[in-house]
Amino acid sequence: MRSVEDQQTRVTAAAVAPRPVRVAISEAQGLLCAEEVVTERPLPGFDQAAIDGYAVRSVDVAAAGTDLRNEEDERIDLTLPVVGEVSAGSRQPIRLQPRQAVRVDTGAPLPTLADAVLPLDRTDSGRARVKVFRPVRSGEYVRKIGDDVQPGDVAVRSGTIIGAAQVGLLAAVGRDKVLVHPRPRLSVISVGGELVDTDRTPGPGQVYDVNSCALAAAARDAGADVNRVGIVSTTPSVCARWSKAS
Fold this sequence. Notes:
Layout (H helix, E strand, L loop, with lengths): L3 H11 L6 E4 L7 E2 L3 E2 L9 E2 L3 E4 L21 E9 L14 E4 L11 E4 L9 E4 L9 E2 L10 E3 L7 H9 L4 E5 L3 E7 L3 E2 L10 E2 L1 H12 L3 E8 L3 H10 L1
Parallel strand pairs: 6-7, 13-16, 14-15
Antiparallel strand pairs: 1-12, 2-12, 3-11, 4-10, 5-7, 5-8, 6-9
């Protein structure tokens, strides 16, 4: 009788590895990546707001929250004019001037000269003019170009099992297809005159075909496409015919 290790070696040696195929990323989930996916563009591709708020120059709001007073020594709030609004997906460039603010949505391109985004909860959410209650640091609440991925970075490595995160990253770097290893395909055949399917009642000396059900399930758990043939005759010619057909 062969050992388990010997049988595993024989089965592995007889198996034919399917060639990699290129599939849509929507069909790649659960498959093994067969290429190094190298990015060609930075991600994000432009400086963008990481939060809803106001694009500002951080130097213009550095004094927010301090004891500001006018010439009459009256306490005043730091206020900036709101000179525009930029939504996510906007293609119209806006140039910010000193001591100005631009209302921005999450994901919106940052106006030129702006170096920070002031969250709404640090302001009075004004539309024409905005009162600033707390300052913001340079770079705060900004996703800089290339923060996530730089050109030449490997987004997904060969040998990685493609899951939801990898599908999202492939889409983010502009890949609609990816080279993958197809699922292994196998057939499970049971032989033995004592075996009966689970939809029949065993007669004297007979048992249910448990092993083919368990092996097929284990192979599916491992990611294979499985064809459970069921019980076939122990005659060598019949077994050979089923093996070739499967």
